[in-house]
Amino acid sequence: MKCIYSVLRPAIEQKSYADLITNCSQKCSVSTKGLVAFTSSFCLNQLRPQSVSYHVYVVDLNRPYQPYLIAESEHKFTILEWDPSGTKLLLCDSHGCATIYTSKDFLISDWRPYFKQVFAAETFISACWYHPGIISTINVPQSNLKTSSNHLEYSDKIQQNKFSASLRLFGGKAAEGCLLISQTGLVCCLTLMADGTVGVVSESLNPLRVKLHVADVSYHKDGSFIVGTSSGSINSTISFYKVSLSLKNITLDDVDSFANGNGDASKRISITSKQFYSFHLNVMSQILNERENTCAFERVNHIKFVSKDSPNDVLIEVSGQNLSLIELWELESKRHPPVHNAILELKRESEALAVTIKQEVDATNGGGNQQQQQQHYQQAYAKQTDDTTAASSLQTNEWSFKGNYITDKSLISIQTPKFRIFGPNRQLNLILLAYEDSSVCCLRKDDLQPIEEPLQLSTDVPIRLLNGRMELDSSKSCKVYSGNVYNNRNNNRSIVQSNGGSHLAAPIINRPLKNRTNFITDLQLSANQTVFVAVDSMSQLHVVRLPTLISCQDAKDEETYLQYMLEFCLITGNDWWDVLVCTKRESIATICDKFHDAYERQPKQIQRKYFNRQLMIRASLYRCLNEAASLCKSSDCHTMIMLNSIASTHKSMLRSQDKDSPSDQLSQFLKTQGTQANFFNMNNVLAKISEKEFYVETQLIQCLQPLNQWVIDLAIFLLISLPQQIKSQRLVHLPGAGLIKNKEAIETLRELLVIIKIWGKQNVASLPVVYRLNDQLDVISTLFKLISIHYATMNNNESDETLLEECIMLANNITITHFEYFLSATGVASPYLHSQQDISGGRLVMEYFHELNLPEWVQLDKIEGCIDMNGPRKIDIVRNISLGAYPLTNVRHCTRCRGVSLMRPMREAASFISTRIWEQRWMTTCVCGGHWAQSDGMFSNKMSSLALVCNTGNFVSLSQLANQLAR
């Protein structure tokens, strides 16, 4: 295990710290989309909290220093649980208020309550979402990871195992919803219906309500839930219940209600709870037998299933006086259960009775027909021994004690994986333990032994003293504190940096103070189980890399393991950030090559399905290196994503035919006859196809003009860069220019040029703008001709000198604008991660609400003689329009790259279907695959403050105002 980074809170006052640390039961939850929700007993950006309140924040794992507030309450939050899709968050507080939150317009900075229900006088202690009915597992070769599996299809690598859904609605569709368990033994179900309503039903676990202290929920293979509970006393039974959900049959009255629009489908849901197999703790038998001094154990604090998808293994943690005991129990099938003595006596009597019956039958028949005697005997014997035979062959399940783990530390939290990615036979079952001293231990489930040495996650909490200075609340040295406070190890004094210079602060207080400790309160594994996230009592986040889930012998095995994990993210839709941060600098290129090679071996229909997503994953890997060649490959992937998306949008606008669409006919024609010299002329191509089939409404075409402009700029960039790449005496690194060697990209580009040409005849306003020095030059036809010549000669080893000369002549006849579709990485998953680890060798330390100081990117080449028409203005990466140098409102930014975009399109263009089709494509994620977040409007605040200063007369010229804006 290795800590990747820690995010510290801003400095707080010494007086407030002792008050806040008392309410330190913080919780966290990690979604499948790479988001972390965590609680806080105070507002993160307040130096001195004004009142006692509880908050829930959400952060992107890539930008953990920018938290967004979800909810605020006067009551403590007890439940945080993401749904399987990672888009809905369940929150429950100590007063029985259950709320489901969703993001507005898919912005992680704006969350709205989807449904809210209050269960009076209830406190929920456990919850889980309904099972979707499918589990994806990785099928690893049984021999070892060195066996190449790139020839296998994804369906053979990633198996979709069927699993019964928790509840199925009309038509067999798996229902969405969540199940909650309260301290009084109440089971509450919130079911999201198809019509947008939420059905609420509740039932008791037991016929009599009981008080529960801890509980956990697991999925059974038949679709039901297994709920493990404990009252907290070691003398009581660890009870398990089987909770099933079902739909009631529809009656004639219900049919009439639904026909009249008055029916409520949620009332048809019913809950059935039955007693499951239970057991007493093994520690109780030791106390009774007086074999050990176990009287120190007093209370059951945790109950946790080893895996959510299997209720057969459970962990029970018992705490006492400076001791913690973890017991592992396993549910096993018993073929020969013990039989009660009364049943055995009944069996002996039945056997004696059978002998007597046989004698009577023989005497009655007098030695008659032997076959009839045997038949009478069998019937009489079966009648007497039917119940005894059934009892003797009965099979049942039973909890068996498998082992325990004892430690002299106080245990705070236990965490296990939600499901097994590599299946139950290959995966290493991990058990994470968080102790009160801020250490985390990782155990193996097989023998309950630590895999590695415990990892210490203690951090220094900056305390602001009354005189305005700061100290660090820790006896340990501080590594980094955002460049403001750091520890001077020579004289054990902290240096505080300010605008007026540096000065020595008071010595660090090493004596322990009451209620002045910081410890881990909760752990959560990521969706791919490569890292885990820990939150401490001060709501500070820590991300730690986990050991590999399967045995890896060397570095090549680790590369293959990470390739499997990336393919798992590709198929399941999970976020791949936690896999990125586990890669090593020297392994990134190899992993990308293996990942791409496996993708190229898939069937064509599978490649088309995952085309954009695999490019996003590869681009994310490439831009983790601050090297020119790697950054250019990342730009090639992003450019290909945009080109493929534009082609799909343009082709979807065409009228579909009974057999082949016009776009399919055009594509087939260019592949078969497009390499002939007479079809390098676009007019000859247009004469062979029916232009009427490509006609679209005029207004719809005009809305796509920015996308047409992007296609033409890309075509010009590729052709102009071709002579520079071939004739240059040194290696040229032009971001995006690698597509000139991509045959699929050239084919797509030719098709788009033909479509744009036809649409330009229908509506001149849809044509792109190109500044020509020769008015007689037909730019689109010339681009099509040169690209067709290059496409016909791509297989030749030698370059076509005529083509290069014509490309140079094209550059002399038009104005070359700077084209660069480069989405540079930001946040942790960037070259910043590897550069900082190479320098310090330890974890990264960040602070909430403070941006990272990312290193400068390697300088990339540009086309000779190009003009940057945009300058400092920001470009909408989705719509290819200028947003100005300082966009104020209605702007969103990506959490994984530096891209920005409008949250909503212009009012005039929003009403057209072509605009809506394009907008929906990038509504959920950025082009790079990152999340959208609304810009914080810092420039708007700066403008307001400057306007106030201007009104006071402090500025005497516009140049001073511009200088202030630049700062």
From TrEMBL:
Annotated Mediator complex subunit Med16 N-terminal domain residues: 150-452
UniProt-annotated location(s): Nucleus
Domain Mediator of RNA polymerase II transcription subunit 16 central helical bridge: 565-759
Keyword Magnesium: no
Coiled coil (residue ranges): none
Alphabetized UniProt keyword annotations: Activator, Nucleus, Repeat, Transcription, Transcription regulation, WD repeat
All residue ranges annotated as the Mediator complex subunit 16 C-terminal domain in the record: 873-934
GO cellular component: mediator complex
GO terms under biological process: positive regulation of DNA-templated transcription
Keyword Repressor attributed: no
Major localization listed first in the record, in broad terms: nucleus
Family assignment from sequence similarity: Belongs to the Mediator complex subunit 16 family.
Function: Component of the Mediator complex, a coactivator involved in the regulated transcription of nearly all RNA polymerase II-dependent genes. Mediator functions as a bridge to convey information from gene-specific regulatory proteins to the basal RNA polymerase II transcription machinery. Mediator is recruited to promoters by direct interactions with regulatory proteins and serves as a scaffold for the assembly of a functional preinitiation complex with RNA polymerase II and the general transcription factors.
Subunit structure comment from the entry: Component of the Mediator complex.
UniProt cross-references to PANTHER family, sorted A to Z: MEDIATOR OF RNA POLYMERASE II TRANSCRIPTION SUBUNIT 16, THYROID HORMONE RECEPTOR-ASSOCIATED PROTEIN-RELATED
Protein name according to UniProt: Mediator of RNA polymerase II transcription subunit 16
Protein source organism: Aceria tosichella
Gene encoding the protein: MED16
